[in-house]
Amino acid sequence: MILYEYPFNERLRTYLRLEQLFRRLDELIARSHPLDHHYALVTMFEVMDVAARADLKTDVLKDLEKHKHQFDAYRGNPSISEDVLDGVIAQLDHCFAALSAQSGKAGQALSENDWLMSIRSRVGIPGGTCGFDLPAYYAWQHHAPVQRQHDLQQWATSLGPLANSVYLLLRLMRESGLPQKVAAERGQFQQNLPQGRTFQLLRLAIDPALQLIPEISGNRLIVSVRLMRQEEGGRLVASAEAAAFELTLCA
Fold first, then answer.
1. 177-250: CATH superfamily
2. What pLDDT was estimated at residue 23?
């Protein structure tokens, strides 16, 4: 199954973008080729760009606190395991403490590294990180893979509290939804959302064998899915076929 996700608000869009960047960063650091480590640095700079929004850290801390209060309300419920509940609340507390202890925005320590910022200033220029432009960076790329990995892991440490917080918030949100099997008639599907409840994320799983691509739109009242088929040359055309898929709404 191919899983598509659609965020209903800008805050969730930011979280999903950060999650994608953090996962890419982890994978690139674990590799050994200098080119992979170059793009690991580029990914760090992308995280800094996304995290530059002034209220991002405040939003994450508020969401961690909100989830903690929600889980605290489950105490004493006989159908809830106290051990599991304590474990989740401990994770929320740990993420909150680590993120709030950081001064400034995520990646603030990286922005104070002049050598890294000299690279960042040139990565947007086509071919701007050639050896004749940045000889020190060119020399670093010839260090042993273990040394480069150590440097990257050290630089990424300042991004760790934000990464762990985003991972936890998205995991809890995804676990809040119940998947349902639905069918699109003539390639179209619409569903009214219940009033009085705010959903933040839609997840859609579809069989790749169908070769259909969902175009998702939605707001607090309704969600709509239009199934598309890709023709030769890449052009997308609306499908008129009936197809089933799995839909999950997460609050």
1. YacF-like domains (2.60.440.10)
2. 98
